[in-house]
C-alpha cells in the first residue's frame, strides 16, 4: 500500500514563519473559490497581478516622481512608474496619469486639494441615491471641509435628472462637480454633465471606480472627451490590485501631482504600481474587451431573470455591471437577505435604495454585480440558476427555513467547482 503524500503548503515561507496567518489565508482562498461572489466592487486578479503585488519592489521608498525623487537607487522604479503611467494614458485616452494614489478615497481627496479651498462648494451624487462618501457627503471629510450639495435620481425612473443637476449647479455655483457613484446601474451621461460644468465654470470629475474596466473594454462610453479629471480605483471591473489613479487634461497635471505628493501622501507603493501596470496591459487586450462586454451581458441577463421572479430593480434594470434590488415588495430587509445569501454561499452587500425609508445600516435593498463570476467564465446561461437561488434563499429566510439555505449552499459550491477562479491556487 502506497502512503499518501501530504499536500504542500500553498505559501511555504508564510506557513513556516506564521502558520496561524497562513491558515487564515488558505481559508480565504477556499472561501473565494467555492462561493458565488456577486459584490460589484469585487473581482479576481490574475496570477500575474498577484505576483507583481508580492515582488521585491515592496522594499523601496520612492518619494517624488520619476526623474525627481528624494531617494537614490530609483533607476528601476522610475521605469516601472513611467511604464504604468504610459499604459494608463493610452488605455483611457487622457493627457496625464498619476498612478500613485493609495486608494480611491485619497485620490478623490487629492482632487479637492488640487482645485478647492476649504468651504468651497462641490456638487456630487447623494450617497443614499448611489453616490460616494467622498463626493461631498456630510460624514466624510469632503462634506466637513467643503460645502457639499447633492443631486439624486427621479422617483419614477431611478435615473439622474440632468435638469435637476443643472438647476442645482446654477443655484449653488459649485467649483467642482462629480459624476459617477457606487450604486449607479445606468450609463453616465458625461457629455450632459460637461455642458453643465462649462455653464457654471466648474471642474468636472468623472469617478469611474466601478466602471473603469467596462470603459477600458469598450462596454461603457468613455469620459475622456468631456471631463477635466478622471478618478478611478484599479480593482473592481479593471481587475487590478487595490490602488487608484488620477487622469487629467495636461493643464491640470501639475496641480494634481502636487496634491498627491507632497499634499496627501509620501512614497508610493511600488509593488502596487507594478501590479497596476500588469492589469492595464491585460486590459488592453481583445480578451479583456470580450470580458467587459460579457460582464454587462451577464448583468442584464441576471436582471431579467430576477425581474421575472418579481424582484424590483431600481431604474428597471442595468446598463453596466451592477443591479440595485429593492426588496420592499419581498417583505425582507436588505441586511437580513444579504446575511441569508451569505450563508448560502452567495455574497452580496445590503444597500440603501433611492428614497429608502430604512436606516443605512439596515436598508431596503441589496447590490449585486457580475464582474467576479464573469472572470470565472460563468456564462449567461447560468444566470437563471443564480436568480433562482437568490429567490429560493430569500423565500427561505423569510420562513426561517435553514435547510433550504443549506441545500442552495451545496448547489453553489458544485457550480463554482466547474469554473475555477483566475489567480486562486485552489483546485
UniProtKB/TrEMBL annotation:
<feature type="binding site">
    <location>
        <position position="127"/>
    </location>
    <ligand>
        <name>(6S)-5,6,7,8-tetrahydrofolate</name>
    </ligand>
</feature>
<dbReference type="InterPro" id="IPR015422">
    <property type="entry name" value="PyrdxlP-dep_Trfase_small"/>
</dbReference>
<keyword id="KW-0663">Pyridoxal phosphate</keyword>
<keyword id="KW-0963">Cytoplasm</keyword>
<comment type="function">
    <text>Catalyzes the reversible interconversion of serine and glycine with tetrahydrofolate (THF) serving as the one-carbon carrier. This reaction serves as the major source of one-carbon groups required for the biosynthesis of purines, thymidylate, methionine, and other important biomolecules. Also exhibits THF-independent aldolase activity toward beta-hydroxyamino acids, producing glycine and aldehydes, via a retro-aldol mechanism.</text>
</comment>
<keyword id="KW-0808">Transferase</keyword>
<protein>
    <recommendedName>
        <fullName>Serine hydroxymethyltransferase</fullName>
        <ecNumber>2.1.2.1</ecNumber>
    </recommendedName>
</protein>
<dbReference type="Pfam" id="PF00464">
    <property type="entry name" value="SHMT"/>
</dbReference>
<comment type="pathway">
    <text>Amino-acid biosynthesis; glycine biosynthesis; glycine from L-serine: step 1/1.</text>
</comment>
<keyword id="KW-0028">Amino-acid biosynthesis</keyword>
<dbReference type="InterPro" id="IPR039429">
    <property type="entry name" value="SHMT-like_dom"/>
</dbReference>
<dbReference type="InterPro" id="IPR019798">
    <property type="entry name" value="Ser_HO-MeTrfase_PLP_BS"/>
</dbReference>
<feature type="site" description="Plays an important role in substrate specificity">
    <location>
        <position position="235"/>
    </location>
</feature>
<dbReference type="InterPro" id="IPR049943">
    <property type="entry name" value="Ser_HO-MeTrfase-like"/>
</dbReference>
<feature type="binding site">
    <location>
        <begin position="131"/>
        <end position="133"/>
    </location>
    <ligand>
        <name>(6S)-5,6,7,8-tetrahydrofolate</name>
    </ligand>
</feature>
<comment type="pathway">
    <text>One-carbon metabolism; tetrahydrofolate interconversion.</text>
</comment>
<comment type="subunit">
    <text>Homodimer.</text>
</comment>
<dbReference type="InterPro" id="IPR015424">
    <property type="entry name" value="PyrdxlP-dep_Trfase"/>
</dbReference>
<dbReference type="InterPro" id="IPR015421">
    <property type="entry name" value="PyrdxlP-dep_Trfase_major"/>
</dbReference>
<feature type="binding site">
    <location>
        <position position="251"/>
    </location>
    <ligand>
        <name>(6S)-5,6,7,8-tetrahydrofolate</name>
    </ligand>
</feature>
<feature type="modified residue" description="N6-(pyridoxal phosphate)lysine">
    <location>
        <position position="236"/>
    </location>
</feature>
<keyword id="KW-0554">One-carbon metabolism</keyword>
<comment type="similarity">
    <text>Belongs to the SHMT family.</text>
</comment>
<dbReference type="InterPro" id="IPR001085">
    <property type="entry name" value="Ser_HO-MeTrfase"/>
</dbReference>
<dbReference type="GO" id="GO:0004372">
    <property type="term" value="F:glycine hydroxymethyltransferase activity"/>
</dbReference>
<feature type="domain" description="Serine hydroxymethyltransferase-like">
    <location>
        <begin position="15"/>
        <end position="390"/>
    </location>
</feature>
Amino acid at each position: 500500500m502506497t502512503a499518501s503524500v501530504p499536500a504542500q503548503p500553498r505559501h511555504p515561507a508564510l506557513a513556516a514563519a506564521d502558520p496561524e496567518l497562513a491558515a487564515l489565508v488558505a481559508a480565504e482562498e477556499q472561501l473565494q473559490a467555492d462561493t458565488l461572489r456577486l459584490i460589484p466592487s469585487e473581482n479576481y486578479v490574475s496570477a500575474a497581478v498577484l505576483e507583481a503585488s508580492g515582488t521585491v519592489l515592496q522594499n523601496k521608498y520612492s518619494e517624488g516622481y520619476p526623474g525627481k525623487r528624494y531617494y537614490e537607487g530609483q533607476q528601476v522604479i522610475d521605469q516601472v512608474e513611467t511604464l504604468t503611467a504610459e499604459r494608463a494614458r493610452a488605455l483611457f485616452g487622457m493627457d496625464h496619469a498619476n498612478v500613485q494614489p493609495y486608494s480611491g478615497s485619497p485620490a478623490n481627496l487629492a482632487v479637492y486639494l488640487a482645485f478647492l479651498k476649504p468651504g468651497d462648494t462641490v456638487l456630487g451624487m447623494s450617497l443614499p441615491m448611489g453616490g460616494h462618501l467622498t463626493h461631498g457627503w456630510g460624514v466624510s471629510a469632503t462634506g466637513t471641509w467643503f460645502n457639499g450639495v447633492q443631486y439624486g435620481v427621479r422617483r419614477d425612473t431611478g435615473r439622474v435628472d440632468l435638469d435637476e443637476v443643472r438647476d442645482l449647479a446654477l443655484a449653488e455655483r459649485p467649483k467642482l462637480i462629480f459624476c459617477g457613484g457606487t450604486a449607479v446601474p445606468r450609463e453616465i451621461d458625461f457629455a450632459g454633465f460637461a455642458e453643465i460644468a462649462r455653464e457654471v465654470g466648474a471642474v468636472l470629475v468623472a469617478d469611474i471606480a466601478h466602471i473603469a474596466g467596462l470603459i477600458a473594454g469598450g462596454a461603457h462610453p468613455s469620459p475622456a472627451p468631456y471631463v477635466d479629471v478622471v478618478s478611478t480605483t484599479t480593482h473592481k471591473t479593471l481587475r487590478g490590485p487595490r490602488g487608484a489613479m488620477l487622469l487629467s487634461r495636461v493643464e491640470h497635471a501639475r496641480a494634481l501631482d502636487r496634491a498627491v505628493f507632497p499634499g496627501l501622501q509620501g512614497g508610493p507603493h511600488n509593488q502596487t504600481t507594478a501590479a497596476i501596470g500588469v492589469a492595464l496591459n491585460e486590459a488592453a487586450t481583445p480578451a479583456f474587451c470580450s470580458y467587459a462586454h460579457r460582464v454587462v451581458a451577464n448583468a442584464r441577463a441576471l436582471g431579467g431573470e430576477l425581474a421575472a421572479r418579481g424582484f424590483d430593480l431600481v431604474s428597471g434594470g442595468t446598463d453596466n455591471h451592477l443591479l440595485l434590488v429593492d426588496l420592499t415588495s419581498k417583505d425582507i430587509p436588505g441586511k437580513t437577505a444579504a446575511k441569508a445569501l451569505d450563508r448560502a454561499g452567495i455574497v452580496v452587500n445590503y444597500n440603501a435604495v433611492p428614497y429608502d425609508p430604512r436606516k443605512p445600516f439596515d436598508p431596503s435593498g441589496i447590490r449585486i454585480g457580475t464582474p467576479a463570476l464573469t472572470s470565472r467564465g460563468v456564462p449567461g446561461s447560468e444566470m437563471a440558476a443564480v436568480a433562482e437561488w437568490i429567490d429560493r434563499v430569500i423565500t427561505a429566510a423569510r420562513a426561517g427555513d435553514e435547510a433550504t439555505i443549506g441545500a442552495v449552499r451545496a448547489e453553489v459550491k458544485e457550480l463554482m467547482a466547474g469554473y475555477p477562479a483566475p489567480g486562486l491556487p485552489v483546485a
